[in-house]
């Protein structure tokens, strides 16, 4: 478990449970709002010392209450402040009503705001609890602010974003900065929410850690070493190559061998004791010309594979990079049904017409890792991928459950999911990882970790993290070949 509350991810529902538990424990809920609003005001002054006017947008709930508190503190600090409210503020209840009553400013209706040069908008309309599309007047306001290029500081989450999924609900602010409280939400990390939040700051408003941790379900978290380091194999002085696992990567035809080599080299760099490329006889020479530490094994068809699999030391495989979409791929996967397999690229697409054929092969303890990008995911899970009511985490978990596999749902916000409902959101990958062959490297890294004995979900999550770290080391302008050389073992 993470040692820092700011490292946790709580859904909006879980954060609401934290607020309720804090109030039930006797903590003054208005005191929490006071600290949240004061933190927002302090952030605004620190980030925008040259602002000519702070424009507070106050919503109909507690997010609006935070904004009223912020407005009071900004005015007391001598700043020029204007206040605009959504709906009738006299209908506010509880702490939000108290916050408004304590603010001497007279607000105006939201649709009266027109951006002016020197404005800084402090967005306190909805926060993370929004569950439906923003009203038309809010959408129009967001459009005016965006067009004018006015900087926005959002309280909790840019209004218009879903705090659980990071999706835009009709329209959303693009904030330069977002200040949230106690913990982050999945919507802060998932795209496009991550981009729209700008720079994120987590502020402790004084809710005891025991209350926050008690509400944290733990099913959704950021992909960090804390999530999987406990299952890493212990380093031992007395070891040999087979104890560190033997990874097999299948090569494509003679003119499509590069992808398999990048996977194989990456698996070796990730710590596998041995790595072999299994290639058709016609592709042996092409592979041999580029390999030294990686071994080669000639293998043309399912009969050859079945014979080779009599060696029970062969337990972990990568199939897909450069392999070709084919019945041959399906036959190879069927032969590997009792082994550990990373299925990538062409291997995934080979089952697009009958995904159930794949899923039925890998029942029992999860030993399959699937690494689809958006298009491959939709081909393998068309109903899940096409369900707009689901966020990326929900989709990945549903797919993992159906396939009984660890799912690496790739993208700028790669999500790793397990059949038991756990999900991790990856954040360390630089944008320049989006290059041809990068996925082949990732498949090899995951395969190398599987070969060392990591469970499927943890191998997938650690592999994605190592992939991001390698991308950071390789730097801008990397090629997949560069990336493979920067992979380091855990």
TrEMBL record:
Bifunctional enzyme that catalyzes the epimerization of the S- and R-forms of NAD(P)HX and the dehydration of the S-form of NAD(P)HX at the expense of ADP, which is converted to AMP. This allows the repair of both epimers of NAD(P)HX, a damaged form of NAD(P)H that is a result of enzymatic or heat-dependent hydration. Catalyzes the dehydration of the S-form of NAD(P)HX at the expense of ADP, which is converted to AMP. Together with NAD(P)HX epimerase, which catalyzes the epimerization of the S- and R-forms, the enzyme allows the repair of both epimers of NAD(P)HX, a damaged form of NAD(P)H that is a result of enzymatic or heat-dependent hydration. PANTHER family: ATP-DEPENDENT (S)-NAD(P)H-HYDRATE DEHYDRATASE (PTHR12592:SF0), ATP-DEPENDENT (S)-NAD(P)H-HYDRATE DEHYDRATASE FAMILY MEMBER (PTHR12592). NCBIfam families: yjeF_cterm (TIGR00196), yjeF_nterm (TIGR00197). One of its GO terms (molecular function) is ADP-dependent NAD(P)H-hydrate dehydratase activity. CDD domains: YXKO-related. Homotetramer. InterPro entries: Carbohydrate_kinase_pred_CS, CARKD, Nnr, Ribokinase-like, YjeF_N_dom, YjeF_N_dom_sf. Residues 15-213 form the YjeF N-terminal domain. AMP binds at residues 410-414, 439. Keywords: ATP-binding, Isomerase, Lyase, Metal-binding, Multifunctional enzyme, NAD, NADP, Nucleotide-binding, Potassium. GO terms for biological process: metabolite repair; nicotinamide nucleotide metabolic process. K(+) binds at residues 63, 123, 159. Residues 224-490 form the YjeF C-terminal domain. Its EC number is 4.2.1.136, 5.1.99.6. Binds 1 potassium ion per subunit. Its cofactor is K(+); Mg(2+). This is Bifunctional NAD(P)H-hydrate repair enzyme. It catalyses: (6S)-NADHX + ADP = AMP + phosphate + NADH + H(+); (6S)-NADPHX + ADP = AMP + phosphate + NADPH + H(+); (6R)-NADPHX = (6S)-NADPHX; (6R)-NADHX = (6S)-NADHX. It holds the Pfam family YjeF_N.
């Amino acid at each position: 478990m993470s040692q820092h509350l700011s490292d946790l991810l709580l859904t909006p529902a879980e954060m609401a449970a934290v607020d309720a538990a804090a109030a039930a424990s006797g903590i003054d809920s208005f005191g929490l709002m006071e600290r949240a609003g004061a933190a927002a005001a302090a952030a605004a002054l620190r980030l925008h010392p040259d602002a000519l006017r702070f424009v507070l947008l106050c919503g109909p709930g507690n997010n609006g209450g935070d904004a009223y508190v912020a407005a009071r503190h900004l005015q007391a600090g001598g700043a020029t402040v204007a206040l605009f409210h959504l709906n009738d503020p006299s209908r506010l209840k509880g702490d939000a009503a108290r916050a408004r009553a304590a603010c001497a400013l007279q607000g105006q209706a939201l649709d009266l705001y027109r951006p002016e040069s020197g404005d800084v908008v402090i967005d306190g309309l909805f926060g993370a609890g929004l569950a439906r599309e923003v009203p038309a007047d809010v959408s129009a306001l967001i459009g005016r602010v965006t067009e004018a290029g006015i900087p926005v500081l959002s309280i909790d989450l840019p209004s218009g974003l879903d705090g659980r999924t990071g999706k835009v609900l009709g329209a959303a602010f693009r904030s330069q900065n977002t200040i949230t409280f106690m913990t982050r939400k999945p919507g802060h990390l998932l795209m496009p929410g991550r981009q729209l939040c700008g720079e994120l700051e987590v502020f402790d408003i004084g809710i005891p850690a025991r209350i926050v941790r008690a509400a944290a379900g733990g099913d959704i978290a950021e992909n960090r070493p804390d999530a999987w380091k406990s299952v890493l194999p212990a380093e031992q002085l007395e070891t040999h190559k087979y104890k560190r696992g033997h990874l097999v990567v299948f090569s494509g035809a003679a003119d499509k061998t590069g992808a398999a080599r990048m996977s194989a080299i990456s698996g070796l760099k990730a710590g596998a004791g041995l790595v072999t490329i299994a290639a058709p006889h016609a592709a042996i020479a092409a592979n041999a010309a580029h390999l030294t530490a990686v071994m080669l094994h000639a293998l043309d068809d399912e009969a050859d594979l079945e014979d080779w699999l009599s060696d029970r030391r062969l337990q972990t495989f990568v199939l897909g990079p450069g392999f070709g979409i084919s019945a041959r791929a399906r036959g190879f996967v069927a032969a590997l049904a009792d082994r550990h397999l990373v299925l990538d690229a062409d291997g995934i697409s080979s089952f697009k017409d009958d995904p159930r054929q794949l899923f039925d092969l890998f029942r029992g303890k999860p030993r399959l890792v699937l690494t689809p990008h958006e298009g491959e995911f939709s081909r393998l899970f068309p109903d899940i991928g096409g369900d707009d009511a689901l966020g990326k985490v929900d989709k990945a978990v549903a797919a993992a459950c159906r396939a009984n596999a660890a799912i690496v749902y790739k993208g700028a916000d790669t999500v790793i999911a397990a059949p038991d409902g756990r999900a991790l959101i990856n954040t360390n990958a630089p944008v320049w990882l989006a290059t041809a062959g990068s996925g082949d490297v990732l498949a090899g890294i995951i395969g190398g970790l599987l070969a060392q004995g990591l469970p499927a979900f943890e191998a997938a999550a650690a592999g994605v993290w190592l992939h991001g770290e390698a991308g950071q080391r390789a730097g801008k302008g990397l090629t997949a070949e560069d990336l493979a050389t920067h992979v380091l073992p855990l």
